[in-house]
Here is the input.
Amino acid sequence: MDVSEPASISAAIAGRYAAAIFDLAKEAGTIAALEADVAGLTAALDASAELRDVIASPVYSRDEQSAAIGAIAAKMDLSTPLANGLALMATKRRLFALPQLLKALAEAIATEKGEMTAEVTAAAALSDAQAAKLAASLAAKTGKTVKLNIAVDESLIGGMIVKLGSRMIDTSVRAKLATLQNAMKEVG
Here is the structure.
């Protein structure tokens, strides 16, 4: 069984809804509100196991999902394009794709603003000066504003791994040791 298939189906569904919601928000001139809504809804989804259960579990009926997402949209005062999109997703039983929808919307907003996000995994925490220098260096290479998502993984021993778009740069000591180990295996 190909496990990537359900993920790609969710991403495709989310992509279509995200494009429609983004276009409606852009027409209405509410991109800033949409950005705030996406951040708030992402935080709510990360913080609430109950919300994740409601959107993913087939136990909840279409009406229960619609009522729940409607209450959340009203409580969070979500912008009209997003609230209507979520309501439509609930009636079509597509709320399982909400995490992918939020990710696609965040990417569309970043592209609209000329921003990119770099995923940085470092062996040790970066100082503010180091993070600013890395962001500036990446911005010079891409010509766009670069935001950093920094994680620490001590198993890298030293260095860092930077993922920016489809590019990945691995300067970690762990990777260099693995390369050296492979070279030694080839020799004999």
Q: What stands out?
A: The chain has two domains: 4-111, 115-187. Residues 14 and 100 are 6 Å apart (CA to CA). The chain has eight helices and four strands.
